[in-house]
């Protein structure tokens, strides 16, 4: 019988693209074995507003050229750290911000020059330094037309300081893990993340070391449908102190850990969500009964996945029930 080979865990097979692999799972311990060997390590694409600036006949060529300019810009910005111009551990933040801001001004000039002949005449891209974190520097990227009017909501241009993450947290943070998390969440949620608490991911180049996401400001799409990451995906966020929400948006997806209920099995997750997403306990029990009826039929495909989905829901529900009981006992004692 043929079995699926997980390319992320197989030492001698390397994927040519990462999108399918990043949808399949998250937080691989073997990024260093397959990402550097991947032929095309770009996931996602430029924002639609930029792509639509190009004529259909030249779109593919100009999108590639634009991405190359972004890659060169990221490489230029990264020279600050390559040349040890900043000491994140010992320099004060005011000093580091000034150095990165100055480098950002140079990078902006370089970006503008390199995009001549790619963007339409009169259009201009603008790059502005915003802040730095433990694994990357963040810049605000905008594009304006010949009248100086912005063609889109600003984007966040993340420049990772290291092109590989080999430390203890490399599977959770950095240029390999974070694009994986964006792609995984978008796919497993089953709908765009725009209206959730997460900023939208557009593009990541794991070889060049940059990502583009929606810029979190007052004008960003409001959070109206939060994604229940712990309940739906089995992932828990452990880094809220370092990366608090900005305008009710989570702009950094490093720092998630897998809970005991995590599953990377798409079918198990699908049947679990069929139950979990119902509004009332009665509706949830109805779905469970329907699935159990199908399981009894030996001709039903994926019966084991259905059962695992039911078991996962019941196990999590029982844990939540006990948690609520303990909480009520504590309240009664106060």
**With helices defined by DSSP (H or I, 4 residues minimum), what is the helix count?**
10
What's the arrangement of strands in the largest beta sheet? 1-5-6-4-3-2
Structural class: alpha+beta
Give the tally of β-strands: 8
Overall pLDDT score: 86
The biggest sheet, with number of strands, parallel, antiparallel or mixed sense and barrel status, is:
6 strands, antiparallel
- Percent helix: 40-55%
Radius of gyration: 23 Å
Strand content: 5-15%
Which parts are unreliable, with pLDDT below 50 for 5 consecutive residues or more? Answer: 1-5
Distance between the ends: 60 Å
Topology overview:
Elements lengths: L18 H6 L6 H4 L7 E3 L3 H4 L7 H24 L10 H22 L9 E9 L3 E9 L10 E6 L13 H16 L11 E5 L4 E5 L14 H5 L1 E3 L18 E3 L7 H11 L4 H16 L6 H31 L1
Description:
There is one protein chain. The chain has 334 residues and is of the alpha+beta class. The chain has ten helices and eight strands. The strands form two sheets. A six-stranded antiparallel beta sheet has the order 1-5-6-4-3-2, with helices on both faces. A two-stranded antiparallel ribbon has the order 7-8. Helix 4 runs antiparallel to helix 5, helix 8 crosses helix 9 and helix 8 crosses helix 10. The N terminus is likely disordered.
Task: Write a brief structural summary.
By secondary structure, this protein is α+β, with helices and mostly antiparallel strands. It has ten helices and eight strands. Helix content is 42%, strand content 13%.
């Amino acid at each position: 019988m043929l079995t699926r080979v997980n390319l992320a865990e197989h030492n001698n097979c390397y994927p040519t693209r990462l999108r399918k692999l990043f949808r399949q799972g998250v937080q691989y311990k073997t990024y260093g074995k397959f990402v550097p060997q991947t032929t095309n390590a770009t996931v996602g694409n430029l924002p639609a507003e930029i792509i639509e600036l190009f004529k259909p006949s030249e779109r593919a060529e100009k999108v590639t050229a634009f991405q190359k300019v972004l890659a060169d810009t990221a490489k230029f910005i990264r020279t600050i750290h390559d040349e040890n111009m900043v000491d994140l551990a010992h320099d004060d933040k005011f000093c580091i911000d000034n150095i990165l801001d100055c480098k950002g001004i140079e990078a902006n000039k370089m970006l503008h020059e390199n995009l001549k002949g790619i963007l339409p005449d009169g259009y201009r891209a603008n790059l502005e330094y915003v802040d730095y974190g433990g694994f990357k520097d963040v810049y605000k990227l905008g594009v304006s037309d010949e009248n100086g009017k912005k063609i889109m909501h600003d984007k966040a241009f993340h420049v990772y300081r290291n092109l590989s993450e080999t430390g203890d947290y490399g599977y959770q943070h950095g240029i390999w893990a974070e694009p994986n998390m964006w792609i995984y969440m978008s796919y497993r949620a089953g709908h765009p993340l725009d209206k959730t608490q997460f900023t939208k991911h557009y593009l990541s180049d794991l070889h060049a070391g940059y990502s583009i996401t929606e810029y979190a400001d007052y004008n960003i799409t409001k959070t109206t449908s939060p994604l229940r990451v712990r309940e739906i995906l089995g992932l828990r966020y452990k880094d809220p102190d370092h990366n608090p929400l900005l305008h009710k948006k989570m702009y950094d997806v490093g720092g998630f850990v897998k809970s005991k209920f995590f599953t990377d099995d798409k079918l198990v997750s699908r049947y679990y969500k069929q139950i979990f997403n119902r509004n009332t306990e009665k509706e949830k029990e109805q779905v469970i009964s329907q699935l159990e009826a199908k399981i009894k039929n030996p001709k039903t495909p994926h019966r084991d996945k259905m059962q695992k989905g039911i078991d996962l829901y019941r196990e999590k529900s029982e844990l939540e029930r006990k948690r609520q009981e303990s909480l009520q006992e504590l309240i009664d004692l106060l």
